[in-house]
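Practice set, problem 2.
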Amino acid sequence: MSRKLCITAVDGNTGFLIAELLLTDQRFSKKIAEITGIALHPNGSRCKELTNLGVKIIPHKPGRVREMVKTLKDSGADTICLIPPAHKDKFEITVELVEAAKKANVQNVLFLSSAGCDLADEKKQPRLREFIELETLVMSTKGDPSTATGHSPVVIRAGFYAENLLLYAPQAKEDGVIPLPIGENHKFAPIALGDVALTAATVLCAHGKHGFSDKHRGQLIVLTGPMLAAGDELATAASHALGTELKFENISEAEAKKVLRAQSDSDPSELQYLLEYYSLVREGKTNYISTAAFHDVTGVHPQEPVEFFKVYEKEFKGEEHESKKRKVAARGGG
């Protein structure tokens, strides 16, 4: 049975890539009947690309829960991929989306959360910590007899996207450094955005007696990259991949803010999220990898840092403008 799917925040990096992968990879496209994309910026380039692939784009108007309920019901969606949008009101908007999904009785819910949220401090890392509250909202529908929405849930906690390192491509090219405010003593394991999209697509397309496949239904999936790396080790991986020597430079949070504001067009709330994640690294709360679920769900190995830097070699060398679009290498499995 083909799935009718709704994906929120399709105008963002993650939502766009999941939708694109579902429609362009034959492993998934044959299992999809229809995709409705919810977008805060429906006239953007990503939405135009998705429209050309057959996605029905619906403008998202926060504060109008009734309209969102109607949109979900009219779409006939049996599954929602709920991605919090890059927006200063991310929390409030996501709460509305969960409420709308409940009222529309969407049976299968895949919620994209953040690795590290469970270790975040409410005062030090509030943007990260709020994902715990959002996860609770999604999971609490399981015990709500008034809706079918809690019947088949999956939560994916995605780690630090390796693509965020592309923000520092100018320093890599001009100064031969990767400047990060992560300290000298601790490590983290960046994950390629494409691996997150691959996991999500696999879950969304797998069927079971109760909605999602019984292999995935009810799972809390934590995703990180396969290599724990301190700043120096990350720079070494980049050096091997790019054929040029790069060094890690440990910078202050104040300097990191200046770099991000100057070199990123992301919403300020997303930049705050990055700074909070870096603070988790400095506190030693990211010294782990979590790849077993990725292997189990997709059947393949996550992208190694050296592979990541090779994929984006032109961007780091300043030979191509960074498009923020994950270049998915052809891989088997899944």
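Problem 2, part (b): a different protein.
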Amino acid sequence: MLPQPDTDLDDFPNDEIKSLLIRAEHRLKHATSLEESSPNRVSPRLDNGRMIRPYITSTNGLARADPSRLISHEDRKQSEQVKQVKDPMKIKKKTIEKRKDNTGPDWFHLPRTDLTPEVKRDLQIIKMRSILDPKRHYKTDSAKAQTPEFSQIGTIIEGPTEFYSSRILNNDRRKTFADEVLAMEKSTGRFRSKYKEVQLASTSGKKTFYKNLKARRSGGVRKR
């Protein structure tokens, strides 16, 4: 059996029931009057202009993409233009020309190295300076050592107090390191004697020995 409600309509007096019905009727009339007073009332729009629109739309069962939204106007304009391919050698040449001619005021405006044949020869002699004088020992240079980008060649001028101790005679003065090495070789003859020693060591016991033997035999055997 269903439970009986705690309250029944018979418990309310007739006057109270009438007042409740009148209030409900007034509320219903008020709601209908509001709807009649604003018949063109529209619900608020969901799209406020900030929503992302799809790139692809369907019309008559066909899917179509909006080309104006796939690529921007600037990118489309660049793609339609003729693209110029730049020569890498010309670009490299321009970068070399744009490089600084000197180191600036922080390094006393040291000029860029001008690699002339004479300068290259002098740099090679500096790297091989340990061969020139066997009695002097220098720190070995790294194999990856490169030509300095900025450098300057100068002349050492002796002071007035070194006129007799460290002065180089005018006849011994040379313009480059190569000229100094050649002049030193003429006076000492060290490289020539070293070359002869190497040649003797490399030819001993070979054809030279046989030639010397034939030269001794060419005199003939002496008879007693």
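Answer key, part (b): The two ends are 168 Å apart (CA to CA). The first helix runs from residue 14 to 37.
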